[in-house]
Specification:
heterodimer; A: alpha/beta; Rossmann fold; 7-stranded mixed sheet; 14 helices; 14 strands; 16% strand; B: alpha/beta; 6-stranded mixed sheet; 4-stranded antiparallel sheet
Chain lengths: 419, 615
Amino acid sequence: MAKKMSLLSTLLLILGLLLSACGGGSATQAAPTEAQPAADTKSESPTAAPTVAPAEPVKFGVVEPLTGPVADSGSYVINGMNIGIDKINAEGGVCGRPLEAIVMDGKNDPQESANAAELLITRDQVPIIMGAWGSSSTLAVMPVMERHGVPLVVETSSSGKITLPETPGFAWTFRISPMSAMEAEASEPYLVSKLGMTKVAVLSVNNDWGRGAAQVFKEAIERQGGKVISEDFIEQSATDVLPQLTKIKNSEADSILMTTSAGQIATILKQYVELGMTQTVLTTGGSNYPIAVMGLSSKEIVEGTYHLVFYVPERFDLAGDPELAKWYLEEYKKRGLPEVGLGESYRGFDGVNVVAEAFKAVDCKADPVALQQALPKVTFKGLSGTVAFKERDGHQSRPNIYLVQMVDGKMVVPDFQFK
Amino acid sequence: MNRITKIALGFVIVAVVFLPQLVNNNYILRLGILAGIFIMLASAHNLLMKVGQLSLGPVAFYGLGAYISAILSTRYHVPFLICFLIAGVAAALAGWGIGRLTLKMRTAYFVLVTIGFAEFFRLVALNWTDMTNGPMGITAIPAPAPWFKGYNLYYYFVLILVGLVLFVLYRLENSATGRAMLAIRENEVLGQSVGIDSYRYMMQAAVLSSFIIGLAGSFYAHFFQFIGPEILGFELTITIVVMVIAGGRATLAGPVLGAILFTIIPEVLRAATMWRMVIYGLLLVFIMLFTPDGVMPALVKGFQKLLELIRRRNSRSQKEVSADQESILADGLSNLVATINSSSAAEAAKQYGNAPVLEVDNLSVYFGGVHAVEKVCFSVNPGEILAIIGPNGAGKTTLLNAITRLGPITSGVVRYKGEEITSLSAHEIAKKHIVRTFQHTSVFRRVSTRRNLLLAHNGQEPNGILVNLLQTRELKQLEEVGRQLAEEILKFTGLERYGDYPANALPYGDQRLLELGIALGADPHLLLLDEPAAGMNPTEVDNLMVLIRRIRDMGITVVLVEHDMKLVMGISDRIIVLHHGKQIAMGTPNEIKRDEVVVNAYLGKVYKDVETVGC
């Protein structure tokens, strides 16, 4: 009898959990804007239009990792996106209707992400999706987009393959994040001449992103007369890089090129300092936000290191729209969002604005084909330069890519990169 | 299968076949396709678990199938069907190779080695960038055919595939192969002693399971059109194992249900956003807590209980075995006069003549410095009862183990009917109709008594995978012989009333009786009994004596290792005495009783320079 009772109570508990979870889920879905503590900026905002009539919302889908090892990065993107949505809606929405995101967890797993995209398209009938963070996930989502003929705005992935015409789904894919090759191109003029990276040791994470970056930077360095003398690829989960670092220390390398996540960069830098190494450090890849690296290590450890970033929060003048950049930074701080997430949050903000611009161009019709036609012509002056799909047959934008150096716990933008 | 199950199954099949028309929703179809892939994975994986091996490396074959198919079709433009088959065959080959290396290992070692192989494949996929494109993965994998548009075709393709796989597995489960696998899982050593070649069946399971998984991998690649090293991750292995165990590994339907459930649950939980995996984990914990045998068996049990409730209203004539029931042996066997007609022993004895059946020539077994059996020589005449006695540690069981090849032989020769059998393996010995029992009760514990006896006959049935798949007439005939034999043994041993109860529910004495029955089920011509009377009371021993005599009268030669002097002296024709591994006496019961050396050995007197009885 006791067992039956316990069974019953557990069942009730599960049911309760499920119901509350569903409730929570649908709340964020139905009104992501209200979930934010600073939602009242709507009425305070000076640019606020006359109260928006409760028109039918304009929906779009989002696939980001909300669970799993990179859930934090996914949530940063979502934070930026929410700021964007709130701003757009406060200014009257798109075509007088509120913009609404339906967010799905993709776990940064290819299969999960593809399932999520499928669900968004079939159940929620979204005419456009933003996602899916990692390159593998994006590459897995692309065939789904092609099958259904729905456009995808890619906000984070860096693999060059994504905007290659032979990749399935290319026609429907529009990327605002830079390819690894763009980072290499942007930094090529000063890598060897200014940073003195003549004998480079590559230390990257062993995935599409790390390998891809290593390849294009190697070419860039060699074009400039430098040399890559060693390449080491480490597991995403590796915490001990002393063997690789010792090898680099004892080699003739004068610099280290790192492409991995902020967490791993912090780990590597700690051990780099421990070994008393002096090589120049340059990190790339877009998930290397130096403030986050510093947060995971210390001011002393990151001192003097170089990083390629797509968004420098304090330097409004470098953004596509300085006014907007200033407003964004204030708003981000006002919401009490984590500072380590600032470097990735801009992707969500720029991404959602591109989606909004595309909707405006088609009078907010939920027509995927019209959106596909409209996207190549969309421009948006955002946080990371101006989004415009001018490359790769109108599927790839070229955002800002700047070199920053950590000096005394602050990001400094060296002048030599501006000719 | 009763009527209700049939009707339910019919409904399910109709619903599954017309799913695309019923829902007309791509998302659900996609989940259907994924569930189909997972059904193949889980069912194939369960095949390996059916032989008692927990592999944590199914993704190795999945990845292999997917990569081979992807590489062949993107680089060399090989048509899908060929890629598909090559992927299956390559995975099967890999399964065979890995099986050769690992299937000699058991339990934790096997688990660890399979994890190692999965990781090995993942690292190859990750680092052999020239071929696999490394972490970048392979994109633009073509659809099976240019006209493969939309999900309906994929759905029906995977549906047919799943149907075929389940049909094959169903056929196998209900054949000699399936019974052998059950026997191996329940009690591998006992299985070998009745002639089941466990290694061969494990190999069959490994090859077939990796073949199916390889096909699933290939299909996945062409459906998904993108693969990366992620599909070789450990997470997927866990998912597959969860599907099998939570679904219910005992039945065919268990993994199917598990695969469907665990494809759907994470999707249903999407609404929970960040809490998704937490709830998923909790659900899993509860499923395992409340349905430890899996969801499917729990459902079936619940359904049966419901039926019983309805039925009980009409009649209440359920017979049950009470736990305190007397053992059949203690009840007395005088009223049991059944004989076993299906045994081939009498016929074989008639043909053979009078030369010794078993000759043991200078047999020695050493464990390092311990000489457990030292140069033992004896022969067994057809139709006799030969007892081997000796104090504990004398090497009696080691001797039996050596003869039946369940244990090692250091030197010496054993001949059966003039043929050397020293180099055979345990199951081959059993196929020669030499069968043994064990000192410690050894039955297929969770299997019904009747099925225990059916399993015992397995060694005499064909073990080819095709024969079992096609269910040839030869197989059916042999099965029928086994069934008849089982019924006769049930009557012979008086275990008939326990026919449908699991072996571990039987009283102790009856379990020992069942053990004897299992040995008889393997159709022995030479029966080696290892302390059959251990733990029995005097009445039970008396009855056992009657039984052993009857067995001998059926034409079966009996070798007996025993401590119970009443039994030994009462039924043996000749007795061999072992002491410290050496044979110190041989003779009729009366001779042995008077032998001074034997008496000294048993009473523990110090004796010097014992003359061993020479060859």
